[in-house]
Amino acid sequence: MEVVVDVSGPVRSDEELVEDASKGDTQAFRQLYGRYVGRVRGLIYQMTAQTDYIDDLTQEVFVRVFRSLSGFRAEARFSTWLFRIAVNCCQDARRQAGRRGPTSPLDKTLAAQSEETLVRLDREQLVAQALQVLTPEHRMVVILHDLQDRTQEEIATVLKLPVGTIKSRLFYARRRLREWFQNQGINL
User: Fold this and answer.
1) CA angle in degrees (0–180, nearest 5) for 79-170-35
2) How many Cβ atoms are within 10 Å of 65's Cβ, its own excluded?
3) Closest by alpha carbon to 36, among 92, 82, 97?
4) Euclidean distance between CA atoms 87 and 120, whole angstroms
5) Which of 19, 131, 164, 177 is the most exposed place for a label (fewest CB within 10 A)?
6) pLDDT at 119 over 50
7) Residue 15's pLDDT is what?
8) Dist. CA 142–CA 124, nearest whole Å
């Protein structure tokens, strides 16, 4: 799906775009989509490590956002609300996948890739494997904090948990990741 975003004119804030989009302004919604689609796709990949579901889940997130815009109360930032919806979609997909049984990973052909790209993909794959050893609750906190650069307070809002719980999960998740990397022969 190709998204064309009009960049002429002044840059509008998320709040302005949300207000206009909730009134039916499709251009405002396109701008929100263009602003956040990359981060939502990254979050979904990091949470699921299933490349064959990224597009479907990303679409589901933005469909839910579009349908719920009129209910957005701006008690939190738009991005926090959006990431909460993305987390919920990932959790729903995980529950549905559990009912269907395991799926085979998508095979990738990397023959035409440059060496730099291969190294980057290897690192990304290693991080994705490491994240899979964590419980879903710990994985979510690490992804939101360390990979999506969210503050502990934002994560607490997104996950509707106390900040102390976020700190605890982050501590134990990082410790588990360190152990996993050491078992792989990688010292951090």
Assistant:
1) 20
2) 22
3) 82
4) 25
5) 164
6) no
7) 87
8) 15
pLDDT number for residue 151: 92
Collapsing DSSP to helix, strand or coil, 33 comes out as: helix
Q: How far apart are CA 158 and CA 107, in angstroms?
A: 33
Model pLDDT for residues 84-102, shown as the tens digit of each residue: 888 888 888 877 766 655 4
Q: What residues contact residue 16 under an 8 Å CB cut-off, 6+ apart? A: 28
Nearest-angstrom CA–CA distance, 65 and 17: 13
The domain segmentation of the chain, as residue ranges, is 11-102, 114-188
Within this chain, domains 11-102 and 114-188 share the same CATH topology: no
Domain 11-102: top CATH class: mainly alpha
Q: Using H for helix, E for strand and C for coil, what is the string for 7-21?
A: CCCCCCCHHHHHHHH
| Residues 161, 141: Cα–Cα separation, whole Å | 11
pLDDT in tens, 15-67: 888 888 888 888 989 999 999 888 888 888 877 766 677 888 999 999 999 88
Provide the CATH number for the domain formed by 114-188 in this structure.
1.10.10.10
Q: Under 8 Å CB-to-CB from 144, ≥6 apart: which residues? A: 43, 83, 87, 150, 154, 155, 158, 159
